[in-house]
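Example 4.3 (complexes with small molecules)
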Amino acid sequence: MELFYALTLIAGILLAFLLWVLIEASYHSFKTKTPEVDQPSKLSFYNWLFTMIENLANKLARLGICKKHILIRMFSNGLIAWKSSELLIKDLHFGEVPVRIYLPRSPSASKRRGVILFHGGCGMYGSIRSHERICQQLAKKSDSVVVSVGYRLSPEHRYPTQSLDCINATIHFLKTAENHGVDPDRIIVCGDSAGGTFATATCQELQNRTDIPKIRAQILIYPFVQAVNLNLPSHQKNASSGLLSLERMVSFTLMYLRKDCSLTGDILAGSHVPESMRLKYRKWIHPDLIPEKFKQDYKPPLPASYIPQVHEEMKETFETRFSPLLAEDDVIGRLPDTCIITCEHDVLRDDGLLYKKRLEDNNVKVTWHHIEDGFHGVLCFLGYGIFSFPSASKIMDHIVNFIKGF
Ligand SMILES: *[C@@H]1O[C@H](CO)[C@@H](O)[C@H](O)[C@H]1NC(C)=O
Ligand SMILES: *[C@@H]1O[C@H](CO)[C@@H](O)[C@H](O)[C@H]1NC(C)=O
Ligand SMILES: CC(=O)N[C@H]1CO[C@H](CO)[C@@H](O)[C@@H]1O
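Answer. The structure with 2-acetamido-2-deoxy-beta-D-glucopyranose bound is encoded below.
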């Protein structure tokens, strides 16, 4: 009998706890605006769900039950996907790095293209599993061999382990492509969000290597490319819409670098950037470089007060591995043909626009698609049927068309 009472009590406490989390999450999500995306109520629901999980994760972390990123990681992995019968799917290691390779089963007269994909998730979330549907569709629709890279995640593995794993896996693929029926001269790197950062950082770092084939092209889907200015028009306008609010982005960035989240306010204000750097990077990162049609309602922010300790703490954000937009012109100009996807409802929209401009100014061939009703992270819903969004399929079609050009 006593056991019964004890169990009821525990169940009661758990229920009350869940209810409390639910109410608090709903309160928060009512404060956020719903953008004019395709299917806004669906996005609101996901935003509510994500906020709820984040709150629960925060509470469990405070109670010392489990670290915050563990629960969010479980959520970001999504549901297990069916394996397509048109593909041969194998788990391998490229060097030390776990990868999953997707090989079309249909015979091919010649060697196929290869696509190496780095999943997004701020370097802390996402996995081979979270991008299973994306990779399967990519392999089938573009008739290419796709390699999904399971790089090690932060905070367990400190920055820049993620980049290094991506680079190592890419080198391995370039060297052993023929073993997988892939033409080593037709290998394309691809990534969404932070995966886009790793993709372009990989292209930058490998550009002068003469011992491996050259990367043929890069596909950057709403990439993160700089943390110098977090007051660009897209940061300002969409600060609290979609799944990635500006605050969430900055706090994830801090968690990724294993810094104290209390720095969020200072970073948002730009206190980590000394005046000399602000002037140096003005020619690459400035609202003046954003086309007029993307700047309605933009208000120049108040000048930030520079705090040397914050700069010291945030030094990594000025490395090109972290902010590839800060690479010099001679590096940018050597990058391969590029496809950039930007979404209108995305705090990182202007990162994509500024990187596009830099590439074009340095004579790199750029194919750009802007998804008017898209939001950050939308591609991760691909393949979930009625739970997905039309703009996810649009992005897939654009990248498949781009890949088919090689
Ligand atoms: C990357 O590859 C090099 C050379 O094969 C190896 O020495 C290094 O340990 C690898 N690094 C990682 C992070 O796996
Ligand atoms: C590649 O070589 C060029 C020419 O020497 C140089 O300007 C550029 O900085 C090099 N890129 C990297 C990533 O080292
Ligand atoms: C919710 C919100 O404000 N969304 C806006 C994001 O930014 C674009 C333009 O920069 C607007 O069109 C959206 O309405």
